[in-house]
Amino acid sequence: MRQSSLVVVANRLPLDDNAAPDGACEWRRSPGGLAGALHAILEQTPATWVGWGGGVGPARDLPDIGTLRLRPVSLSEDELAGYYEGFANSTLWPLYHDAVEQPVFDRGWWETYRTVNRRFAEAAAEVAEPGATVWVQDYHLQLVPQMIRELRPDVRIGFFLHVPFPPPELFMQLPRRIELLRGMLGADLVGFQRPQAAHNVAQLAQKLLGARGADERILLDDRVVLTGAFPVSIDVAEMRSLSARPYVVNQARQLRHDLGAHKRVLLSVDRLDYTKGIEHRLTAYSELIRDGRVKVRDTVMVQVAVPSRERVESYRGLRDRIEREVGRINGEYGRVGEPAIHYLNQPFDRADLAALYQTADVMVVTPLRDGMNLVAKEFVAARREDNGALVLSEFAGAAAELEDAFLVNPHDVDGLKETLLHALAADPDDLATRMKGMRDYITSNDIHAWARAYLTALHESRVPAV
Ligand code: ADP
Ligand code: G6P
């Protein structure tokens, strides 16, 4: 077995196994913030990525991607249902996102979650060379840090949570709260998107585990666990160079033409997820049309919603509701050859996304809760001129960084309507100042800065518990 000095452990491999139309298998980059962020930094670093390839049954061996080795972990049909669709995405995901959808507590899922976490931990322990760094990602694998500590006390263990960590009152609802907390605190460094999360965890560790210490330095048993905020980012240089390619620029021009050269374009790009606030946004937009404050002849909305977790009931229900509502809005307000909304329920490649971002007058990113939201940062990186507005939810981690966006509370539909109008009517000088501010920020806080900050802190961890 080949071993590496850096091992990343994440539920998903950075590539998806897709059946091509001719039945052959082809691989594409997985949508979602985590895969995109880590893919960017690991392409050139010798490392092994332990993860699930997307299907069920025995995992196939996979070729390296540059210097990155892939170590696939298999899932059976039952494990996919109990671990991924069940405990991870029907219990933890909604609970960690402020319970905007009711979390499901199914006692049968826990054992499967634990079994699969153990499989990931064993795979990581196998491919880590002596004294390696093992970096575990996200809520699917919250038990893995402690399991690796038991299997391989010689390695340094990091854990990063890409999603929000909930307030203690919500976390306390979890039937397996003690195991989940202890599992995560098996790491030497636990990283979050926002400082509040570290504070919440320190409080819970005191209450549930009898830990001592402060927010960023938890004393648990005879160890120190460091915690901190490391807001994740994107590969700004990649998005910028993609956006400058002549065929992307031409594609953007063509899209603008197809949408109506004289029209103002509102754009949203999301995974089709109930945390993203798509329904609130559609309500706001359709009311603006209904009230005559926005005219379909001079404004159009583009909603890209990439299919996600489609076997989970709440996601299927959401998709049906959104498609009904888009149909209603177009039926009521569209004109022949002139829909009010273009709805695209499909994955796009990076170049298509770069072109789309360039067509928007207003990028509308209004999640009800989001750990970070990389789409907001991608939009800024893709803009080649100092124009275009970003309407951004206060409840996205990105809002703490992109202060020059038009910030909005997406639960307040009237406020959302006013902010959309404000962004549509903004003065070009104001937009230019805002765009420059956001661009400067992401340029110096890109994905490489994030990885450097986290890995440096991890290497300086393992401090004595005095
Ligand atoms: P999340 O991690 O919850 O999905 P983020 O906004 O942080 O939300 O990340 C979403 C990622 O998925 C971005 O990198 C974005 O470019 C990508 N993405 C979104 N929509 C699509 C799509 N239709 N096709 C391909 N990738 C997409
Ligand atoms: C979010 C999560 C990731 C996840 C991604 C896509 O970004 O934090 O862990 O990979 O969504 O979701 P999926 O269920 O398709 O992996």
TrEMBL record:
<protein>
    <submittedName>
        <fullName>Trehalose-6-phosphate synthase</fullName>
    </submittedName>
</protein>
<dbReference type="InterPro" id="IPR001830">
    <property type="entry name" value="Glyco_trans_20"/>
</dbReference>
<comment type="similarity">
    <text>Belongs to the glycosyltransferase 20 family.</text>
</comment>
<dbReference type="Pfam" id="PF00982">
    <property type="entry name" value="Glyco_transf_20"/>
</dbReference>
